[in-house]
Amino acid sequence: MRLRIADGRWRIGAAFAALLCAGMPALAQDRPSVGPERPFQLAPRIEKTLANGLRVIVTRQTAIPKVSITLTVLSGYSSDPADLTGLASLTADLIQEGTKSRSSRQIRRDVFGMGGSLSAAASQDYTSVSVRGLSEFAPRLIDLVADVAMNPTIPEDEVAILKQQHLQTVSQQKASPQFLSNRTFRRALFGEHPYARTSETEAALNAMDRAKLSAFHRDHYRPNNAFLLIVGAIDPDATIAAAEKAFGAWQRGEVARPVYAAPPALTGRHVYFVQRPNSIQSSISVGNLAVKRSDPRWYELTLANTIYGGAFNSRIVRNIREEKGYTYSPQSAMTGFSDAGFYRFGADVRNDVTGPTLTEVFKEIDKMRAEGSDGAELQGAKAYLRGIFPIQTATQTGLSATLNNVYIFGLPKDYPETFRAKIAAVTPEQVKSAAATLFGSDNSVIAIVGDWAKVMDQLAAYKDITFLDTNGQTIPAPQ
Fold first, then answer.
1. To the nearest whole percent, how much of the chain has pLDDT over 90?
2. Is 127:73 a contact under the CB 8 Å cutoff?
3. Domains of the chain and CATH, by start
4. Per the confidence metrics, is the pTM higher than 0.85?
5. DSSP 272-300
6. What ranges make up the beta strands (E) of 74-225?
7. For residues 292 and 469, what is the distance between their CA atoms, to the nearest angstrom?
8. Residue 333: which pLDDT band, with cuts at 50, 70 and 90?
9. Which of 74, 240, 287, 393 is most buried by its number of CB atoms within 10 A?
């Protein structure tokens, strides 16, 4: 809905601007030109590694009198045992529910009293515990994060409550075609690789207990497997001293690294069809394996994806949204993790245009691979990426997220300062090469959630089809 509003406002604004210019040509001639791009420079980051191995990174951002503190543990879904997917996620929820010195209610009262909020969540390669609040309380907020990460009690009654909440979420996810499409896509793309894990299952949740959760915390929440990132209106030296005091007693330990099985080889266009009777639309995912986040080609790959489908004026949006009206909000995204990455196109389309949508997706992919992009289109994509980057890092939350990626994935330390220059330096030849790398036309995973009876005639060209139910189990071809 937000896109519709924004699009409507753009149309009204454009019409008004055209009318204004037509009525007052002199004003149009006097319109000032766009000024030079301002340099992007962050405050220097101060880093210190404590004796126990915890890296502490501090940078000042004084636009508002607040502070953002993120403790990132380099273990996430990829560190879950294969039969306990979601263990890292449930552990992240439970460490907020009480420590040796604070009850769950006390934790929330303390953080609220400092004008802040506390959250924790697991991702593919890591888990982050974040707190935000008024900068005058920075030492106390740091102490709170340390207490939550180091001393959780993981109460038995909270384990039962949160397990039920997660089970309800799993049930709700099965009713979401978009979730099922993405889950099916990821499982097919990565196979036995940990990156196939996107969410919990009932079986995994039912097998979790306090002992397993406590063991995951003990084995992975270690200072030598973590870093502390602090951004805000703070004094860096005093902040590092506060971090040393809060985290100095944390004991280091050996942490097992994830085991990465090789993803399946992609051969041909394989369709994974999730049968959902009576669906009025198809939820489609198309994509293939890509590079890991630290790959130096990330800049040209980002540009190629932006031109293809990663922006509102991209080729696939113009094609199947603006020209053909197949769908409202198609998109493509490139995702990079520590060990690998993937490209994924996604859209929800009417049943009667399921096949035609796939035809247009591959047509645009083949054109991008064959021709690349140059001229005004390429320059526009560069301007877009260079323009939104300062906006994305203007808030403490946005800057924290960017810096978090730097330290999680081992990106160059000057990544924020050099991003725009490296985007500007990408050549048309590199974009064409990136398209060939990113968009695997002939070898692709296609995941569709819908009603087979309503779309089967449109998919006759696809001979390699696996049928699944909403639990992800293989089923015979629907009759």
1. 88
2. yes
3. 46-247 (3.30.830.10), 269-468 (3.30.830.10)
4. yes
5. EEEE-TT-SEEEEEEEEEE--TT-TTHHH
6. 117-122, 127-134
7. 31
8. very high
9. 287
